[in-house]
User: Fold these one by one.
Assistant:
Number 1:
Amino acid sequence: MPAITGQQYIERIDALQTYISIDGEVVTGNVSEHPAFKGVMQSQAKLFDLQHDDKLRDSLTYVSPTSQQRVGMSFLQVTTAEDLVKRRHAARQWALSNHGFMGRSPDYMNTTLMALASAAEYLKGKPNCFADHLLKFYEYARENDLTMTHTFIEPQVNRQRFYYEDEDVIIAAKIVDKTSQGLVIKGARLLATQGGITDELLVLSTNGVDKEKGFGFSIPSNTKGLKFLCRQSFVGGQSTYDYPLSARFEEMDAIVVFDNVIVPWERVFYYENNEVANSFMNISGFQAYSLHQVLSRQIAKTEFVLGVVQSIVDTINIGDYQHVQQKVVDIIVSLETMKALLLKSELEAKRDDYGFLRPDQPTLQVAIHVFPKVYPTFTEIIQLLGASGLMSIPSEKAFAADDGDLEHYLQSFKDGGEERVKKFRLAWDLTMSTFGTRQTLYERFFFGDPVRLSGLLYQSYNREQFVQRVENFLKNDH
């Protein structure tokens, strides 16, 4: 099956009958009809439908080297500079469809899998590693346009650097047995965004100490013993007037529980090899490729935020104030900085040890330091500019019953009451609703702890040439 349609995506996920629990109840029937998942699944379906738009087909798909059918552009391995540009355009097109609010749109995980497969050579010949399994799964996912969620971290039990669980108390998922069928996994992992509404769960575990917790594999979401335990839904309601963002883009996060789950050997990429488990993601170019996609999404999101801010400015006519102009310019500077970093990462792309071209990782590491810091300031700017307008937001139902008072007294310089409130409800859902505050937290920690990311950049960024320049200057007496 080549690039799928939105309807095929929905039907396939419904057919899985994955174990999903939310608010203490197991989801029965079609998950696509459940209030917590309906909106985001419809939004995701639209992404797949774009692949079949005659105007976008060449931007969003390419011809598979094996099947000669059209497959998703986010699976494309990068051999030329043109390939990077193609990937950026495709990522941007999908991001524009959801305005960057779907951090786990399928192209993110497709990119992750592509990055791993591009470095499969690293696994060859190493104990308990199966490069051919990884490559076969990559091809299978590409040819069937699979959707994936993932889990990369362990539950927050004890954040000491070295923490050993009581052998009789299993919390973090680990290998508890190996059978002729495959690995047996028991325990839990965090934090599967879109958990339960994807075809597959990709698990990459890096545990520097316990070999039983170091593994990489992918399994269908409806695998026996696999459970997705969801947080409370942040969908405020079905009305897109009242909840313009959460009704459409609330992705859901889930705890993943493995209740003696059997992972078939053919789906195991590596296991009980600490060296590989702790290094493969970095060696594979996961950061470089995935950040290239992430930055494309964050740029689209910043553009949308800028549009929301300017709408507020225009609606209540505050554009002549210099402090307002400064706030808008702060967003513009952030936007143009990220756009420049994205292009720079492509201009300075380098060939890796496996023959593929990677966008410049240090440049993208800088970008992932910028956005988590500026995004919370976007929220603050909207709150400061919107002020009491973010509280004067009657519902769609209230306007339907209005005898004219709301329309009259909530009018603005530019809009009537209902239209003005519509804009301010969007700003509220972006910055003050449970959905909006989750978005801020999500962007703060999207790629991990900011302090840890700083440490990685400090350790990896080459500064010796600049030190040498200073020393040469000091040695020069002329």
Number 2:
Amino acid sequence: MNDSSWGAPPPQAGYWGPSDQGPVRGAAPAGPAYDAHYAQQTRPMPIVPGVPEHGGDQDDDQGTARLSGPLFRDEPPRDDAYRGENPSARPYAAVPQNPEPMPDAPQPAQPQPQPQPQPQPQKKTAGRDLGAAIGVGLGLAAVIVASLFVVKAAFVGVIVVAVVVGLWELTKRLQERKGIKAPLVPLAIGGAAMVVAGYVRGSEGAWVAMALTALAVLVWRMTEPPDGYLKDVTAGLFAAFYVPFLATFVAMMLMADDGAWRVLVFLILTVVSDTGAYAVGWRFGKTKLAPRISPGKTREGLLGAVAFAMVAGALCMQFLIDGGTWWQGLLLGLTVAVSATLGDLGESMIKRDLGIKDMGTLLPGHGGIMDRLDSLLPTAPVVWLLLVIFVGSG
């Protein structure tokens, strides 16, 4: 005991003296001692059940007391000391992990699901302007019919114009897409000569004109450098056969006494075949006919072309051709449907190789002249030959 404790006043009630352990919970603040009168009126604090009177276990050497609750947040509460007691007496009640909201508490607004747009079914389309196509078709039909039944020579002029324009379209596309320079001048002159010779001299005149046209193509190309000579003259010979020579058979049909009706039957059957293929294929077509060549053509469309052409052939041969019968018309219609389809596929093969959709843009809704001649050109020699077999050359 040091000297400073001598003469010190006795400790008052409720006061603990200084301690080496530091301040103790419940100690009165430092300062003058409390009056004894007030000390007697002070009521002791009630002791909470389960809690030590002096605040529980002592902590480290600082003397601070630790409550019975968890030291860290993630430590589970110590419920063993409160089993069987009133839960309200627990100083630290366990907080539920997923508390349920109060009945009267406002609930957060739930986002309303947005309606998803429904995919619209794709409507089948023709792929062309049908109004323009029908208008142009009617105009061409009027020109053809007027020239056929007024002056036959005028219709020969129509064939020549179609041949020259078709050759121009074909040679232009070959040069643009493949760099092939088929000479147009000898092709155009020789093509016109073939048509006229076929009308005047028949098949003999057509073959002679074809030979002379081929020779003119070979000579004309010699005026340019030899690079590409072989492919250019080969393309020229192909163009001469494909366009004017096949068109010559239309002129030879016109030579007969009933030549105008024969040409009209040829045109009707070809158009009806194409129409039947389109109508049936657009409505019922499912099985592709030649997907690598023309994805739009179907086997159902081919059956439609055959059916339409056979019916039209029977009617035309019975009522429009002298000496014709309906069963001949059935065979004629079947052959026209097949040849027209093959001709269409043949030009589709050419256009796919060139990487184009149409040969030209001269006819709105149709493309170019060659896009209308594709099924007519290979059908012309077939119809000419069958008519000669059935009813003679006239």
